[in-house]
Amino acid sequence: MWLRREVSEVAQAKVIRMEGRRVSPGRGPVAVPRCRALRADGSRCRRSADQSGLCPTHREELAAAVVSPEEVPGWQRHLREATTFLRRRLIGDYQVDEFGFDPELAVNLLAPLLRPFYRSYWRIASVGLAEHVPSEGRALLVCNHAGTLPFDAAMVRLGVFDDHPAHRHLRMLTADLAFGLPFIGPLARKSGATLACPEDATRLLEAGELVAVWPEGFKGIGKPFSERYRLQRFGRGGFVHVAVETGSPIIPVAVVGSEEIYPLVFNWKTAARLLGFPYFPITPTFPLLGPFGVIPLPSKWVIEYGEPIETAGLGAEAASDPMLLFDLTDRVRDAIQQTLYKNLVARRHVFF
Q1: CA gap 199, 195 in Å, rounded
Q2: How many Å separate Cα 108 from the centre of its chain?
């Protein structure tokens, strides 16, 4: 009697699976989840499934069939990124800093528009970028300026972001005239530009940013083609004062190729005065060819980033020494001019 009772208890304790149902002592029948996948013949798989609703075999097949993001066709990936970008812009889900810089707009809209010029049209080669431009911390880039329109500034900024291993944003010090132009002014702000004044430059450098300045200003960008690659006067050396005061290294940057995109043969001063511009360019194609004259020529560019000139060891009090500032200004100017001459001699052809 006792043996029969013990065998009965053991039998009741077992879980018996049959036809998709499970029987447990005292709980009644419980449904066993089955795989939701279909076999090749169209019948449903009868294997037990886990929480994903699939059996181990079909789960492995599904994992093997999943396409990784790298394998997604480019146009689909770009379309998805563009849709996400537009949605974020429409709902206001983006950030702008105190200077008006909009990094999301600069990376997703402005950079793709300029990248074909950088990569394919002007075929720009960046030299010394990774070696001399720091991956973090402050630095002041001082560049030559030329080309009738400031494409060189846009290309230097894009080159630092695209070609530097740290993909850093370059904050450009720009003349106030640019911010007064419709459409151009707001776009310049959003791309990272700010007023070329010591206050803004100091705040950016103290925040650890990369800052770029073009000391020649309109004198450089609007000079005639006969004076190409001859640096103009560097103003009063205000950029050196800011660099010494903040202890920022100065990096000379020489751009070869921008002088040939719009060869300025004549400055129509009367038209410039009437329009309020610092110069009005007459080139071999503009205004002779009308709107087509605005298309720049496809010259070959080289942008070389020179060895940094350290100022941290001078101390902040050195910023009040005019002779030291003049000497540093000449040193930076000479470094850029010598690099321009070197790359001009090495250049095989203007367009190749």
Answers
A1: 9
A2: 9
Q: In the predicted model, is pLDDT for residue 298 greater than 80?
A: yes
Amino acid identity, position 14: K
Structural contact between residues 124 and 303, judged by C-beta atoms closer than 8 angstroms: yes
Q: pTM of the predicted model, to two decimals? A: 0.78
- Report how far residue 205's alpha carbon sits from residue 191's, in angstroms, rounded to the nearest whole number: 17
**End-to-end alpha carbon distance in the chain:** 104
Instruction: Kindly report the backbone phi and psi dihedral angles of residue 18, in degrees, each rounded to the nearest multiple of 5, phi listed first.
Output: -160, 130
Radius of gyration of the chain (CA): 33
Measured distance CA(240)–CA(250) in Å, rounded: 8
Segment 266-278, tens digit of pLDDT? 999 999 999 999 9
> Cβ distance 227 to 218 under 8 Å?
no
174 token code pair: 């720009």
How do the residues of the chain divide into helix, strand and coil, expressed in percent and rounded to 5? 45, 15, 40
CA-to-CA distance for 56 and 47, rounded, in angstroms? 9
Of 189, 172, 191, the closest CA to residue 180 belongs to 189
| Cα four-point dihedral sign 158, 159, 165, 171 | negative
Q: Are 40 and 34 in contact (CB under 8 A)?
A: no
- Which stretches of the chain are DSSP H helices? 2-13, 56-65, 74-91, 103-105, 111-116, 129-132, 151-163, 176-179, 184-190, 198-206, 218-221, 238-246, 269-275, 322-346
Identify the CATH number of the domain defined by range 109-261+296-346. Answer: 3.40.1130.10
Which tens digit of pLDDT belongs to each residue from 109-156? 999 999 999 999 999 999 999 999 999 999 999 999 999 999 999 999
Q: How far apart are CA 160 and CA 172, in angstroms?
A: 12
Question: Which two tokens mark 299?
Answer: 């010259």
d(C-alpha 169, C-alpha 135), whole Å = 11
| Strand-pair partners of 133 | none
Residue 98, helix vs strand vs coil = coil
